[in-house]
Amino acid sequence: MKIVILDECPLNSGDISWHQFSDFGEVEVYSSTSENQVIQRIRDADIVITNKVPLRKEQLSEAAKLKYISLLATGYDCIDLEAARTLGIVVSNVPGYGSHSVSQFVFSLLLDICNGVAYHNDSVHAGLWEKRAIWSYWETPQIELCGKTMGIIGYGKIGKKTAAIAAAFGMKCIINSTNASSSEGIKAVEFEELCRSSDVIALHCPLTSKTREIINRESLAMMKPTTILINNSRGGLINDIDLARALNEGIIYAAGLDVVSKEPIQSDNPLYHAKNCLITPHMSWASTESRNRIVRETYLNIKGYVSNNPRNRVT
After folding, report:
1. Active site residue 100
2. Which of 22, 33, 62, 136 is the most buried (most CB within 10 A)?
3. Active-site position among 8, 41, 204, 234
4. Distance between the two ends of the chain, CA-based, in angstroms?
5. Does pLDDT of 185 surpass 90?
């Protein structure tokens, strides 16, 4: 059996080993794979492991031996699932591996926006505190989270952990999700009500045809001018042009983004220079613990498949 790993980078920064996958056969590992290299690399594979390399119908059709795809991720929008079903290819993902890290990162973004920690650290090291005549200063608004409302769009494992952290800060949580109802003191509301009522909005839903660009000119106009928007789910949930306009015109206060619609971000993306827009390079999933969890779960996915008991199936 031949296993091909198409893009171990950025999962592996030198601290991840694939040696255990040789339990199943020959293992071929690539740091990255471009679109024009995909067919050549998967043509003779029995199993393909991919993180973000897209696998579309025209590529899958050329891989006659391929019967199983295991994603090094939770999201599976890079796979043509309809084509995989038609070709009899089983697809599995790794749900929940980054719930702790991703929900923690929500508050890394949020707290930097609320308190300007990195900004003030830089100002101190630039000598500004030394030059002040008084013992304290701040150059950004200092925002207290206690008592404010966090609206969470998508209420899976990450959304629930985000709600628990928000509650520890003394925040009230409301949710909007296709599979959620009011429970445990958290109220499920319509999307429009969430936009209007929330002081902070966190996106934790998958990217689908229904959720693509749900944050757009219309939904942004419903929000408060003090709203903070956090997205470390999928960049395609937001219309970049509309969000940049909303930030620059003060329609909402700030955004913390770990993802954008096209990655890596390009300098012509309007968010690149937007007011009060904090951007990090799609890293909220990347704790050492999360990355090792991905590899372990992927190993167990393949073990289940070869034992005729596939787990975490999405097809």
Report:
1. no
2. 33
3. 234
4. 21
5. no
Residue 85 is classified by DSSP as H
Find the catalytic residue in 282, 291, 293, 297.
282
In this prediction, residue 242 carries a pLDDT of: 98
Query: Reduced to 3 states, what is the DSSP secondary structure of residue 120?
Result: helix
Token pair for residue 306?
């070869």
Please pick, among 26, 35, 192, 263, the residue that the annotation labels catalytic: 263
| CA 196 – CA 83 distance, rounded (Å) | 40
Kindly list the strands in the beta sheet with 68-71, ordered across the sheet, starting from the edge strand earlier in the chain.
26-29, 2-5, 47-50, 68-71, 90-92
Active site residue 190: no
What values do phi and psi take at 203, rounded to 5? -95, 120
70: its two tokens = 């295991």
- Residue ranges and CATH numbers for the domains of the chain are 2-97+288-306 (3.40.50.720), 99-279 (3.40.50.720)
Which two three-digit tokens encode residue 264? Answer: 């890596």
Please tell me the predicted confidence (pLDDT) of residue 40: 98
pTM score: 0.90
Q: Has 282 been annotated as catalytic?
A: yes
Alpha carbon distance 232, 245 (integer Å): 20
Q: For residue 295, what pLDDT is reported?
A: 97
